[in-house]
Structure to design on (363 residues):
């Protein structure tokens, strides 16, 4: 058997054209498969990161009737905040339209009582957070629309109630507050409640927990909203990525195997005199069959192994989050080597079953 191995390795150099073609086909095929899967992993990671943004991890409990006003209040904020995997909670109370008290016919902007003011998904650009119900911070858009300078000012509603403007902010995402924020420390009834969880994949489960814990499951006067359309679209896209890449792998391997079949037939026909002489000199059919199989094994193993190393290096540079697992790489290499040998077995069989005398007599 060792002699057969040595002859197989030696014969790799006896047919350089066919062996180089074999090697290049397997090498390119393996590179295409691994780089496609790395690119797919990178795209899936990017989509997952996008879907894990805070606006997709936030749901809103909205009071649509009057019989729930006693339940949606500032006390429920503390209770929901204590739940595991809850990142932040804030509620909106009464809202007003206000204008710049120092400017006649000023544009209007909305403000709302908010509780609590800690851990809100906002970035304070200037000033400080309000500390009582007579102070307000405005969104940067409202701040500019009302014509305030950085020193602040006073806003007033239609009833003459006034609030001192102590700063302005930028919302961190689309579900974050975008109105003027007035801190309300005492017990307050809420019109709506926003909850942000730590991961998007637990959003539905936590919504069910909130419904069950606070008895909201059968309440028609409470509406729970989430950005479900975008989540479903993202999940569908990630699923289609995996399906598309898997199909591409099987199509690529199938095309390569067809090429190998024709190339193997051409190689066997070009070496029929060599096999005939071996038979005449006493070589067994099984020896020639093993010789061809081992030669294919060496070439495909070397090509797929080298392609695996190169594709990992390329993926490391191009797709930092698309590095394939070693187990997957080994599985694909096994599939390529095994299938490459199997599809060539008929041509190998035709080579060893020929009558050596007829082969040598045929010009």
């Amino acid at each position: 058997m060792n002699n057969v191995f040595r002859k197989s390795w030696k014969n790799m150099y006896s047919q350089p054209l066919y062996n180089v073609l074999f090697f290049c086909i397997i090498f390119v095929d393996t590179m295409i498969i691994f780089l496609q899967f790395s690119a797919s992993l990178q795209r899936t990671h990017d989509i997952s990161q996008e879907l894990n943004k805070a606006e997709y991890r936030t749901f809103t409990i909205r009071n649509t009737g009057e019989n729930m006003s006693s339940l949606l209040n500032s006390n429920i904020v503390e209770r929901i905040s204590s739940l595991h995997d809850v990142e932040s909670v804030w509620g909106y109370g009464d809202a007003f339209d206000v204008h710049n008290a120092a400017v006649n016919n000023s544009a209007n902007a909305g403000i709302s009582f908010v509780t609590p003011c800690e851990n809100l998904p906002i970035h304070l650009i200037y000033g400080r957070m309000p500390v009582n119900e007579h102070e307000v911070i405005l969104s940067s858009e409202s701040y500019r629309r009302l014509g305030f300078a950085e020193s602040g000012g006073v806003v007033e509603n239609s009833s003459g109630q006034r609030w001192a403007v102590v700063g302005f902010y930028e919302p961190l995402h689309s579900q974050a507050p975008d109105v003027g924020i007035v801190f309300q420390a005492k017990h307050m009834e809420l019109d709506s409640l926003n909850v942000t969880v730590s991961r998007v994949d637990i959003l539905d489960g936590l919504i069910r927990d909130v419904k069950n814990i606070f008895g909201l499951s059968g309440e028609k006067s409470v509406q729970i909203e989430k950005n479900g359309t975008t989540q479903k679209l993202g999940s569908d896209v990630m699923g289609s990525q995996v399906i598309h890449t898997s199909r591409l792998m099987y199509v690529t391997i199938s095309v390569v195997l067809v090429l190998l079949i024709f190339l193997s037939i051409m190689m066997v026909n070009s070496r029929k005199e060599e096999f005939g002489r071996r038979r005449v000199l006493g070589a067994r059919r099984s020896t020639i069959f093993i010789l061809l199989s081992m030669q294919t094994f060496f070439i495909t193993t070397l090509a797929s192994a080298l392609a695996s190393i190169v594709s990992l290096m390329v993926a490391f540079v191009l797709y930092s989050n698309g590095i394939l697992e070693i187990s997957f790489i080994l599985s694909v290499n096994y599939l390529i080597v095994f299938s490459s040998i199997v599809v060539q077995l008929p041509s190998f069989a035709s080579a060893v079953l020929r009558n050596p005398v007829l082969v040598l007599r045929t010009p």
In short: The chain has two domains: 2-49+234-361, 54-198. Strands lie at 58-63, 86-100, 108-115, 122-127, 135-139, 153-157, 162-171, 180-183, 192-197, 222-226. The longest helix spans residues 228-270.
